[in-house]
Amino acid sequence: NALFAQVEELPRDPILGLTEAYVADKTPHRVNLGVGVYQDENGKVPLLACVKQAEEAMLAKAGPHTYVPIDGYAHYNAVVAQLVFADSCDLAKVVTVQALGGTGALKLGAEMVKVVTPNARVWISDPSWENHRALFSAAGFTVETYPYYGADGELDFAGLLATLEIIPAGDVVLLHACCHNPTGLDLSQDQWRQIARVVRARNLTPFLDTAYMGFAEGLETDAFSVRLFASDGGPMFVSFSFSKSLSLYGERVGALSVLTASAQERARVLSQIKRIARITYSSPPSHGAAAAAAVLADPALRRQWDEELGAMRVRIKKMRRLLADKLAERAPDRDFSYIVRQNGMFSYSRLTKPQAILLREKYAVYALDSGRICVAALNEKNIDYVAESIAKVMQ
Ligand code: PMP
Predict the structure, then answer these.
(1) 3-class DSSP state for residue 380?
(2) Choosing from 156, 186, 209, 222, which is the catalytic residue?
(3) What positions does the domain Aminotransferase class I/classII large occupy (predicted)?
């Protein structure tokens, strides 16, 4: 039977491929800076105490594993909408649908864009999270890029704005709400206002991907971009993920929100998204969303989450500072302040591809070829070695 005889083998996912190489590496002091997960001081992915408590309470009153509604748990969707939008818009016009992580939210969103503007092109930042291009292309869109990371290693805001000015009406602009992946470079509030003005004036559809809310300055400040767009009444798409902020990666906890023009429109859009969910996975998983909703709905657990999220954010910032200082000690003629100015889990370290390869092969420090490193994988034990190795390959 020759059914699969001609199947082409695709290249490995570059990030997962790097982790496989890291796992196979036997060097005792090896460090994996390739992954996109937060790790604590001991290099472990944390189980947040607020989540653990919520899960213990859930276990104590365990019930049968029935189906979750197609659009997810209503109480989960309500707390997510409140968290993301607060009072920036009329929530009666917002559809929020539980999704399988941020990726699942992007997929639901992509299919919903196809319902309203099937011929739109989708504009992503250059560079962006690799899956953005793959996901929107697979959904049938032509994906274009707008300038983002400048040749000088800083945000190319002029280039970004100039490109928005020529994008045709109806096209979709995908923006990172905060903690841009991979560069760590975020827009200032004033720059967000300028972008929102152009996007609205030109009738582009904003799609804000929100995978790291809480990791830049805190939940409220990090929601600025989403709430700015929401405050003029929309329309807009927002994909949201709890993977990082509740450390619930494997539970697939996310949501898609769409801001519509009226409660009637909301009902019609909801019916479309339910159709998309139904034919894709029928209904979402229960455990993670139930735990997330329990944390957000309980004032004590919610306070604890704020503290735990704050501690993750502060630890990342401390590692940025330490890395920048330690690199500056070893290479005093270079400026590393950009590491401290970037937000979120990642730093575009300004390592070139040959340097990233050398770092890996000679020092067993695994960074992406683009130079992206996960700052959240640094800790007091590995940071001296990492700084020493980066300084050596940058020489
Ligand atoms: N968007 C961006 C920008 C991301 O970095 C990620 C996660 N790496 C996602 C979406 C997807 O998140 P999730 O793991 O919840 O699917």
Answers:
(1) coil
(2) 209
(3) 30-390
Length of the chain, please? 395
For the beta carbon of residue 250, count every other beta carbon within 10 angstroms. Answer: 10
Q: What does the block give as tokens for 215?
A: 């990791």
Instruction: Choose the residue to mutate in 181, 347, 368 for probing ligand 1, maximizing ligand atoms within 8 Å of C-beta.
Output: 181
Give the pLDDT mean for 257-261.
98
The pLDDT tens digits of the residues spanning 25-45 come to: 999 999 999 989 999 999 999
Q: How far apart are CA 252 and CA 249, in angstroms?
A: 6
326 among known catalytic residues: no
291-346, pLDDT tens digit by residue? 999 999 999 999 999 999 999 999 999 999 999 999 999 999 999 999 999 999 99
Residue nearest to atom 9 of ligand 1 (CA): 102
Q: How far is the CA of 104 from the centre of ligand 1 (A)?
A: 9
Whether 129 sits among the annotated catalytic residues: the reply is: yes
CA-proximal residue: ligand 1, atom 10 (nearest): 102
Q: Which ligand 1 atom minimizes the distance to the CA of 103?
A: 16
Q: How far apart are CA 199 and CA 161, in angstroms?
A: 10
Whether residue 116 has pLDDT greater than 90: yes
244 part of the active site: yes
Distance CA 50, CA 59 (A): 14
Contacts of 208 by beta carbon, 8 Å cutoff, 6+ apart: 174, 175, 176, 177, 225, 226, 229, 236, 237, 238, 239
User: What average pLDDT does the chain have?
Assistant: 96
Cβ atoms < 10 Å from Cβ of 174: 27
Spatial contact of 42 and 379, defined as CB atoms under 8 Å apart: yes
Rounded to 5 degrees, what are φ and ψ at 178?
-165, 165
Pocket probe for ligand 1: among 100, 180, 241, 348, the residue whose CB has the most ligand atoms within 8 Å is 241
Q: CA 212, CA 355: separation in Å to the nearest integer?
A: 28
pLDDT recorded at residue 368: 94
For ligand 1, atom 4, name the residue with the nearest CA.
Answer: 211
Characterize the bridge pairing of strands 254-259 and 94-99: antiparallel
Token look-up 């491929």 returns 17
CA 327 to chain centre: 27
